[in-house]
Amino acid sequence: MISIEQMAMVLEALPDPAFVLSRSGKYVAVFGGHDERYYHSSEGLVGLRITDMVPADKAAWFLEQIELALETEALLIREYELSIKEVNTGVEDGPPHPIWFEGRIQKLDFLVDGEEVVLWMASNITERHDMEAKLRELSDTDQLTGLFNRRRLERDLISHYKAAQEQFIPTSIVAFDLDNLKTINDTLGHYVGDEVIMAIGHICRAGLNGDAIACRFGGDEFVVALPNVKLEQAMVFADLLHERCEAHFNCFFAKSLASIIGVSIGIAEILATDTSYEMALKRADDALYQAKRGGKNRTMVG
Ligand SMILES: Nc1nc2c(ncn2[C@@H]2O[C@H](COP(=O)(O)OP(=O)(O)OP(=O)(O)O)[C@@H](O)[C@H]2O)c(=O)[nH]1
């Protein structure tokens, strides 16, 4: 039979840190988690309170989880982020970058100093978390330009449409299409055509600010969503886009190519009367084709 002392040694040897926390957020006991590559030091925590250790909003969140684990008596699994700067240990050890944790929180069937307690096991899941974030980013990105892809734009437009309907926050949509890319492909080769498409990625990344979301919608068509921007300001954005494209093409491409390449732009604003974001997107797209029919390299409003 294992002795109490041996049991304490087993707990101390746990690779991940395990905390016994009271309902009021007091550290009653701390075990394991001594690997400084993965964890901040837990030394000297016993007797302190969560509110002494982390900023108020985080402390409130921890207390909420403890409360929930005690009330439900179920195993809670929660992901959260903590950086060494947020933890008031007075000891600057452990990894310098923020750590993502998976916390497993379970009510314990005994009281400490008359208070209910939980066991809070914390595992470092930063690698998995970063990998998942990277995969999410890749699945939202167009490989050739580095801009977002259509799937990501559609997701964002759904939330901008909701904001327009519920909070009257305007969003403008700027749809644009390269002029004469087929001629460039046919005369100078597909690789030069690719370079022109990549140039749009560069122009959008360098020239957009704030919440603007630029995406390659498909082929040589692009869409920029401009949250908090009304139609008149979107016109200014479209003028700037024309200017930037012209300057970039003149600077980086041969004269013969720069003289035929340009962008046709259609803009529209999501309206309160729209029943979906697609209606505004269609208006922008229709305006884009009017710009094409009107002679290309110009902006039309939908
Ligand atoms: N190089 C290259 N070409 C592409 C790519 N995606 C689509 N295209 C070409 O882009 C052209 C798009 O067709 P259109 O928009 O009708 O051609 P366009 O010459 O730009 O005509 P306008 O839009 O009327 O000015 C087609 O020839 C496609 O093959 C790509 O990733 N790389």
From TrEMBL:
The highest taxon in the source lineage is Bacteria
Class of enzymatic activity (EC top level): transferase
State the reactions this protein catalyses. Answer: 2 GTP = 3',3'-c-di-GMP + 2 diphosphate
**Pfam families of this UniProt entry?**
GGDEF
InterPro entries, per database record: Diguanylate_Cyclase, GGDEF_dom, Nucleotide_cyclase, PAS-like_dom_sf, Rev_trsase/Diguanyl_cyclase
Answer whether the UniProt record assigns the keyword Thylakoid to this protein. Answer: no
Where the record annotates domain GGDEF, the positions are: 169-302
Which Enzyme Commission number(s) are listed? Answer: 2.7.7.65
Record-given protein name: diguanylate cyclase
Organism this protein belongs to: Marinomonas arenicola
Top-down, what is the taxonomic lineage of the species of origin? Bacteria, Pseudomonadati, Pseudomonadota, Gammaproteobacteria, Oceanospirillales
